[in-house]
Structures are given as structure tokens and as C-alpha cells.
Amino acid sequence: MVLKVFFPSCCSSADSGILIGRWISEQNSAVILAVVHFPFIPVQVKQYLGEVQRVTKVSVSVLGSWSNSKQEKEESLSEFLEDLGTIFCHEPWIQISKEGDSKFWSCSILQKHSKNPQEEEIILVYYDQRKVMLSHLHPSLETAGQRAEDASKLSAIFDTVARSQVLFMTDRYDEGPIKLTHWQSDGVEASIIVELLKQASVPACMLLTFLLSLLSGICRSRVLKFWPLSFLWSKLSTCEQLGHRLQHLQVISSNKKAQNQKQLMRKANIFVSLLIDVALGILLMSWLYRKNRIGHLADTLIPVADHVAEELQDLLQWLMGAPAGLKMNRALDQVLGRFFLYHIHLWISYIHLLSPFIEMILWYVGLSACLGLTVALCILSDIIALLTFHIYCFYVYGARLYCLKIYGLSSLWRLFRGKKWNVLRQRVDSCSYDLDQLFIGTLLFTILLFLLPTTALYYLVFTLLRLLVVIVQGLIHLLVDLIDSLPLYSLIIRLCRSYRLAAGVKFKVLEQQNGKPLRLLMQINPLSYGGVVQTYRLPTYSCYPRDSWASLCKKLFLGELIYPWKHKGDKQN
């Protein structure tokens, strides 16, 4: 048989005493939790362990003795340590000793009450109590008492340490009859600032919960469900982002305790994401309001819009001629060119009509940066959508006209082959046509076929312009999603305290010699950075299309509309 003794590394320099911990018979293992120093009264030790066992529901007992002899071992001390096995009556009785400056340890087993004592191979495993306690590789404390404990797994070791937290609350400064050595024996880890924040967070969370419930009630009211407001709420990315942040605030201010480590990390990641978002937004706002940068931005916006309109006019004049030497249909080319030129003229008039109010609009828009950098970026995306609305209209006109001709040509092509589209059964069936239908179909097919190059050229040009705007908006929304979903708190924890995000354990051999116990060091394996992002990544509101290149090319060829993103509740045509 192999006996495994899990010994805390913080007790390696403790004074001589007795070992208290838990014996796991299924694994033939002993988990040492602390060392009780001399002098002590055995009755008081038994009473103390009974109280700990009643609170923690862990069968804590005296497992053996610990001797740290910096001088020569006294004969009376060795006899006293052997007699302790008779007082506390634990089978087997573990005796661990460290001799002076020697790096070798001795560990022996006494089985006084066994009729057939057997020699057992001993493995001494060192573990860091602090890391084991904070690694959260153990089952949840709320569910540990409800389900049967699986003692055949290593998680029983972690569960024992985690549930014995009451044992670690006493330090060497306590004026009690029992002195212990454990990972918090030099003082319980605490911070005055953290404790004050905990006390202040309760009324702050109650006030924030009330305000958020009031705000969410207003958002769910029927007034916002009428057509103009509901349309704006579903189409403007700023409204979507505000609703997303409102959900985050409700999660943070909730008084419901996190059930597991993942929920706790999610709350912390949301809080840090909001904090950094607001800090970056305030920094942006302070930069905008210095040196009258908003006035300079407003003065630059009108000339840029005029320059874009002039470039579009030059492009349309080029298309109305002989672009790249192509022979276009003169009549259709002139009609489409004048139609789009008239829209550009309306757009220029619209921009100049708003020019006196642009600086005031930008001034108030800059104040929204105090809500966060993501809100400011979403407003920038909406402004780009409004400023390029004429390009979107050109793209929709060209796509619909091109789509109409493509579907018309495909329908007339089926007419030549004696086929037709069955709407009820959603399939192509055979059909017989008379001579008049074939003659009219031939004329229409010829007209649409010769007009197709002109329409396709306009569609191609405006599709490229639309894709340019979509790429810019997509990059902005990627940055917004990066700020919203990146688990910053988890990444900081992984960088500073990697054992808090543990993926498992590994064992390192410290000492292996004949006649001595095998000494191992149990180390915590942290999650990789990719695993941290994948495990604790926060959900976002945007749903970017995951179309393949073949699907995208098919949409472009058939003239279907392309959207940069799809919000909740949107329906693509």
C-alpha cells in the first residue's frame, strides 16, 4: 500500500507540535491542515476540533506529530511524541520530522492497534494552502453539502482545504489556549479599504438597483413600442449599446450572490469593463473640449461633405460618358445619371441646411462620451450612417434595379426552355407556351439583356462604395465588441495571480532516495490566455454575419442587400 501525506509548505518551518487534518480512507491519504504547537492541553484540542468539525462538516482530527528539531533532538521530546499517539488514538499515527539543516525529511507510520502491521510506502506531497484555497478547483461550498462527496478524486483534497476556512481564521496574535500554524497564521489577509468598500457597496447597490429598475420600466413602457421610437431603437447602434450597458449595470447591482466561480468572474469582468470604458470616455471627452477641438471639427465637416459630394458628381459624370471605353445604353445611362445627380443635389442642400447647428450637435454628442467610449463609438457609427445615407440610397436603388433584371432574365430563360416556377410547390415545372408568349418573352429578354451592362456597372460602383462604408462601420463595431466582451479582470488575474484561474495540477519530484519518503511538490496549472478569453468572454449584442465567400459572392451576383451587422429583432430582406 502507498500512503500519501499532503503537507502544507507553510508549516515546514513551524515549531514542533501535532498535525491536525483529515484522513481520507478511500485514498489512503492524509491531508494536513495545520500544526498545533506545544504546550497545549489535549482536552482543549479535542474540544476545539469538535467545534471546527461541527461548523465545517469536515472530519478533522489529530493525525500525528511534527518535530522540527533545530538542535539535537531531546530524548524526552521523542518519548512525548510517541505517547501522543496513545492519547489521541488515530490509526495510523504519522510522525514527520525535519532534522536541523539537513534537506532530508523522515516520515514514519505507527500502527499500535493493528494486529498485522504492514510496511507502507510513503509519499510526502507539499502543497501551497493559499493557492489551493484560491484556485477554486474544489466543488462549490453551497453544493458540497448537498451531493455525495467523491473521495476517489483529487478534488477531495481541494474540498477539504476549502471547507476548513474557519480553521484558518485564527492567527498567532489570538489570545487563545491553542496556537496554530497555517497559511494565515501570521495574520488574516484583509484590507481596510476593501472592508470599507464592502460596507458602502450595500446602500450604493440598493440605490443603483432602484434607479435601474425605474429606467428599465421606462424603457419597457408602451410609449417606446410605437413605430417611430421602436424603429429608431432597433436601428441605431447607440440605443442598442445603451440597452446592453443597462443590462450590465443590472447584473452588477444585483444583490444575488454569485453561485460559482464563473458567475463571480463574469460580474468582475463586467465591472472592470464598465470602469475602463467610462474612464476612456471621460479621457476622450476631456480631449475634445480642449483648445476648441469641437469647433475645428465642425468647421472641417462641411468642407469634407462637399468634397465627397463633388467626387460623387465627378464619378457620375464619368459613368454617364464612356467609362473605361465601355459602350453603354445612352438613354438609360442618362436617366440613371441625372437621377443620382439630383439626389446628390438634395444631399448637399440637406448638409448646408444643418451647417449652423452642427457645432451645437457635436458639442452635445461629445458629452455622451461620459457614458463610455463604446457609446461614443456607436454614436460615431450612427453619424457615419447618416452622413453616407445618400450612398446607401444609391446602393439600394442600383441593387433593386439589378436584382429585378436578373430575376426577369432568369424567368424568361425558363420560358425558352419550356419551364416555369411553381410558386405553390417551390420548384420548376414543365409548361407549354403559345407563339405570342414566346414572341413577347423574346422581346423582353433582348431588352433586359442589352440594358443589363449599364445597370450592372452602376450597381457595381455603388456596391463598392457601400462596402467601403460597411467596412468602416464594421471596424468601429469590432472595437466596441472588443471593449464589451474582453475579460479584462480575468486577464489581469491571469497575469498577476495565475493560480486563481487554475486548469489542473502537476507534480514535481523534489527528493527521491532509498529509505526516505518520496517528496513531491503539487503545483497549480493556470489557464492559458486563450483559454481565459474563451472561458470568461462576455456576450455582446451584435451578431456579425458568418457568411462564406461563396454565399457573399452569390448575394452580390443576385443583387441582395448586404448589411454590416444584424441587431436583435432585425429582419434582413
Automatic annotation (TrEMBL):
It comes from the Eukaryota. Pfam families: Gpi1 (PF05024). One of its GO terms (molecular function) is transferase activity. One of its GO terms (biological process) is GPI anchor biosynthetic process. Keywords: Membrane, Transferase, Transmembrane, Transmembrane helix. The chain crosses the membrane at residues 200-219, 270-289, 335-354, 361-388, 394-416, 437-461, 467-492. PANTHER family: PHOSPHATIDYLINOSITOL N-ACETYLGLUCOSAMINYLTRANSFERASE SUBUNIT Q, PHOSPHATIDYLINOSITOL N-ACETYLGLUCOSAMINYLTRANSFERASE SUBUNIT Q-RELATED. This is PIGQ acetylglucosaminyltransferase.
